[in-house]
Amino acid sequence: MTVAVTTSNDWVSALDDLDAFIARAENAIAVNPGTLIEPWLPPTDLGAMPAEFVDRAERLLVRQESLQARLEDASTSVLSARALTQVVAGSSSPRPPSFVDERA
Predict the structure, then answer these.
(1) pLDDT of res. 29
(2) What pLDDT digit, counting tens, does each position of 84-102 carry?
(3) Contact 57, 65 (CB under 8 A)
(4) pLDDT tens for residues 30-67?
(5) Residue 47: which of 18, 82, 4, 90 has the closest Cα?
(6) Which letter, b or e, does each residue of 50-88 get, where b requires 16 or more Cβ atoms within 10 Å of its Cβ?
């Protein structure tokens, strides 16, 4: 059985990737709140986080939670706008004719 050895560089790289993902997502929703954000998937082979990275990871977690709240708010806004659009579109639909013009 082979056990993967994790280095501090692996954790730096993973946290850098997460930081970049959060920044891209923050920018995307600032420009267009309806932007589809693909989830970030953490590496599965890092092992325990070294203590030296805990503070940075906690700061990233706070940013992720803030981003999640903004995405939820944006989603609610988009759904509300869509519902309103459907109501307005439904109210302006053409009415059926009220008479028939027949020429003899």
Answers:
(1) 84
(2) 777 776 665 566 667 777 7
(3) no
(4) 888 777 788 889 898 888 999 999 999 999 999 999 98
(5) 4
(6) eeeeeebeeebeeeeeebeeebeebeeeeeeeeeeeeee
- Per-residue model confidence (pLDDT) at position 93: 58
Q: Which residue has the tokens 């953490």?
A: 42
Tokens of 10: 């692996």
Q: Are 53 and 15 in contact (CB under 8 A)?
A: yes
Tokens representing residue 34 in the block: 């309806």
Read out DSSP for 6-56?
P-HHHHHHHHHHHHHHHHHHHHHHHH-TT---PPP---S---SPPGGGHHH
Query: Taking the mean position of all CA atoms in its chain, how far away is CA 57?
Result: 20
Query: Tokens for 35?
Result: 């932007």
